Task: structure prediction
Amino acid sequence: MTSLEVSVTELADGVTRITLPLPTGPRHVHCYVVDGTLFDTGIGLDEPAWAALGIERIAITHFHPDHVGGAEAAAAATGAPVYQGALDYAQCERVWGSPDWPDRIAAWFRTHGVPEPITAELIEQGHAFAPFIRFARGPELLYEQNHLGGWSVLELPGHADGHLGFLGSDGVLVGGDHLLARITPAVGLYPESRPDPLGDYLRSLERTIELAPRIVYPGHGEPIADAAARARELIDHHRERLAQVEHVLGAEARSGFEVSRAVFGAELSPAQRRFAVAETLSHLERLVFAGRVVRAGTGRSVTYTGP
Ligand SMILES: [Zn+2]
Result:
């Protein structure tokens, strides 16, 4: 446990925000209860008084540990059914449901040039962390266009392949980590995932501009009143980063790891490097899809070359 505590805030009429401490990253994650639906469940290290919150159903925005890790406990405490995106749940099982995931992801990072000492530490951290992620087995599966209570289900891939948003008739979007006010949501390439996550994300941001929700309740940070403006900022950010990544590449083949050092610097912890390499690779693959970068290599070593 960290020194932070669970806090419950009435954000607006009928909107309750439950904020839980996180041991890393943004140090907190928000869950919301609206009209009897609990959106997201925290990381599972804390067990808020779920039973006191009038929860009739539990909806998961995406399978990252700080959103899904408490799902089993929340379901047990409330007796409420859990709803999760079909694609997202498949990935959730593939990743957290399988004991060799830390080894599989480390092997994949090695093919992208990440050296052995870093991958060894990632494996160790992965195995240490896995027992805390207690997602709910066999949830009800959700797809685009489904309705859950008064909410429309939207597939907003990018930050996670199967990321969902929940849009209410009053223009409220419960958005998970799709859109955050001050943090740039991570968009990384990972093994056994969709091939162009940044392309997915840019399309999901364009869709957000079209939808123009009245307010977004995010997984981290404060509510977002002008979602379209924030989506445009994030599109601009990724355009700049794409230009930066392309600029770093020349005629010489370089690994994702090497490019990540040029873009994000050489001094990062193993956990930070993991995100930096995944983020770099999502940009490199976007450039490959756009025909501006060439990928070479196969199973053992993958490199990228400029145009
Ligand atoms: Zn996330």
Q: What stands out?
A: The chain has a mean pLDDT of 94. The pocket of zinc ion is lined by residues 62, 64, 159, 177 (CB under 6 Å). The first helix runs from residue 65 to 68. The chain has nine helices and 14 strands.
